[in-house]
């Protein structure tokens, strides 16, 4: 992403998931990973996705509004975000109580939905909202707004965020983000257009 002083901000709302998108955390008792964590937060070993601070700062410079939406609890999200961003710059932090629980009867499991109608109050049309998330099911009501990201599970060689920044810049410039085919964006060559 380029210097905000030399380029206007994208008039879009960028919404970021937390777990496996920006960080990976393991509670006490969960299996050890081959890599050491960067942080210890309460009883969590926390792995920061490589480049996450730079990514957050660039996103905040390039989009008029950036929020975080996670199905985790507020205490957890607050503690984790403290490690990666100046929280005062975020437009909002939405946690579990802003998610809707759904049940998949075939798989006999529950999951969380992020219903983007809950973002209506921020003054963006649906074609101006981008949601970065590793779990597409959570956006099943608004796939067109989803920028899926491969889940991060602690790998220090992960370079996804370095590619996501420029890709979001491309999406920030289009009229209607829902009209763009975004699936598998991380598999494309760098020179490919949106
Ligand atoms: Mg996630």
3D structure, described in words:
A hairpin with a 2-residue loop joins strand 3 and strand 4. Helix content is 17%, strand content 25%. The model has no long low-confidence stretch (mean pLDDT 94). It is an alpha/beta fold and 194 residues long. It is globular, with a radius of gyration of 16 Å. It is built from 3 helices and 10 strands. The structure holds magnesium ion. The site of magnesium ion (MG) has 7 residues, from loops. InterPro entries: FCP1_dom, HAD-like_sf, HAD_sf, TIM50.
Relevant terms:
194 residues, alpha/beta, Rossmann fold, 5-stranded parallel β-sheet, 3-stranded antiparallel β-sheet, 3 helices, 17% helix, binds magnesium ion
